[in-house]
Design the sequence.
């Protein structure tokens, strides 16, 4: 098993790397892989949620990056 430590990454970068690794493992191109990462904070909204549930402005949230 491969272990890859990505360090601190943006969520999308970590997700893209994960999906590419899944593809390669399923094709047998690489061994099973454990990814270790910490990503910057994200906001997730459940299936029944909406942007109206976010109580902070986009400007404020962008300033936190």
Sequence:
């Amino acid at each position: 098993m491969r272990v890859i430590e990505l360090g601190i990454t943006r969520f999308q970068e970590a997700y893209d790397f994960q999906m590419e690794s899944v593809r390669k493992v399923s094709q047998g191109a690489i061994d099973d892989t454990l990814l270790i990462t910490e990503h910057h904070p994200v906001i997730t909204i459940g299936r029944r949620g909406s942007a109206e549930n976010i109580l902070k402005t986009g400007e404020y949230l962008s300033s936190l990056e």
